[in-house]
Structure formats: C-alpha cells, structure tokens
Write a structure and sequence with these properties.
Layout: H1 12-29, E1 39-48, E2 56-65, E3 75-81, E4 85-91, E5 115-119
Antiparallel strand pairs: 1-2, 3-4, 4-5
C-alpha cells in the first residue's frame, strides 16, 4: 500500500484540512473582514528519533492566516461649551461641513446627526 495524504495518519490530515478550510470560508463570508488574501498552511515536519534514523517523529500542523476585522471609523466635530463642557457632533461623512444639515437622498428627510455633551469634570 502506498502512503498518501488521504491515508496518512489514518485520514486525520484530510479532517484537519477541512477544518481549516471551513475557518477560512467563514472568514471570507464575514462582511466585517477585509478583502485580503487568506492562507491555509499545512506543515509536515520529519525528525529522526535516533541516530540510526530508523524511527521518525512526524509532526503535522495546519494553520489559517485570516484577514482581521476592519476597524470602525467616524468623524467628530468638537466645540467648547463653557469651561468644562464640550459638544461633540458625529459627522456621517468626511464631505459634511461642520454644522451642515444632512438630508437623506432617498426620502428627502433631514437625517439625525448625533450631538453629545461631554462633561470634562466628570470622573471616568
């Protein structure tokens, strides 16, 4: 009988490959990850156990190199409100000018632009 990847380690190498392949497919389907390259790396290392070299220790590992989640970004406008408070307005687009009203292009309605008050004296 010939030693092949499908019968090596009683077929467990195939199961290891399938497990890592599923991990990569899930990562690709995750819309929060980037479009970068994913890799599935299988390493098979052979090391003679004794000087006679009649025994060989075989180590098999599989790993996936995935694309991470893309970071979240936003744009904030900061305005001082008195000596201890600030107003922070989140802009939805870098094209928005500070204080600009945003209108939904589909509905024509004025879009909500969140504004937050930050009290600089409050303890974190």
């Amino acid at each position: 009988m010939e030693l092949t990847l499908s019968n090596f380690v009683k077929g467990k190498l195939e199961k290891l490959f399938q497990k890592e392949l599923k991990t990569i497919m899930k990562n690709i389907l995750d819309e929060d990850t980037g479009y970068g390259k994913r890799e599935l790396i299988i390493k098979i290392a052979f090391k003679p156990v004794y000087e006679e070299r009649e025994n060989i220790r075989v180590t098999i590992t599989a790993e996936s190199k995935l694309v991470g989640h893309e970071g979240l970004t936003t744009n904030l406008d900061l305005a001082r409100r008195g000596s201890d408070n600030f107003l922070v307005t989140e802009r939805r687009s870098t094209k928005d000018a500070p204080g600009q009203m945003m209108i939904d292009p589909l509905s024509g309605e004025i879009m909500d632009t969140p504004t937050y008050v930050i009290d600089a004296t409050a303890k974190a």
